[in-house]
Amino acid sequence: MPHPVHALPTLLDLYGVDTVFDIGASTGNSGQYLRNIGFGGRIVSFEPVSGVYRQLAARAANDPMWQCENIALGDEAGERRIHVSGAGGVSSSLLASTGHLEAVEPELRVVDTEMVRVETLQTIVERYYPQGDRLFLKIDAQGYEKRILEGAGSQLEKVVGMRIELALVRSYEGAPLMADMLPYLTGLGYRLCGIEEAWSNRATQEVYEVDAVLFRTERARGRAGSGE
Description:
Layout: H1 4-14, E1 19-23, H2 29-36, E2 42-46, H3 50-60, E3 66-69, E4 72-74, E5 78-85, H4 100-104, E6 110-120, H5 121-128, E7 135-139, H6 145-150, E8 159-167, H7 178-187, E9 191-200, E10 207-215
Parallel strand pairs: 1-2, 1-7, 2-3, 4-6, 7-8
Antiparallel strand pairs: 5-6, 8-10, 9-10
């Protein structure tokens, strides 16, 4: 089957996605990709690191259907210190590094810390998606993905699918691995629809992270049991 990066336009249409939450948006590459593949619905991007957020907001400024918030998401609201990585902050995390990142790519070492506001997925769904059940999540949160989903409460029922980063090697303290996450996601009612390599060792070809695309398959449009 095609990799998710190729199949995603078809999947978004098949499941009638009308809004995407881009969680861990960085400078907005995912939002721009969604526009490039023809997604015309609403995008709400969340990026906690202030310097990175400014680049994101500038990128989305001329798109009236693309909103941005300078926050992190987690299992409880409050304030937390984020470890800001080098290389433009692309690997910044609320969790401490295990040392794997720096060993493989020294430019990803922590170069700063910053206090950031944290909200729950339940709160932001209530704010940005109070009705409907065709919400899609893109979650790239450097080991915090499960905690984000744990903060969804009953609002998770509105999420028809997600593209989520899963780790095969633990780069952040306390982060679950793919072997833990896939059963967890299946238990929430999602089924794997595609998977692709996200980060690997160029020399050894060892895969460190993958992006998985999952949907509530009973909600496919025009399929038996979709409820439509």
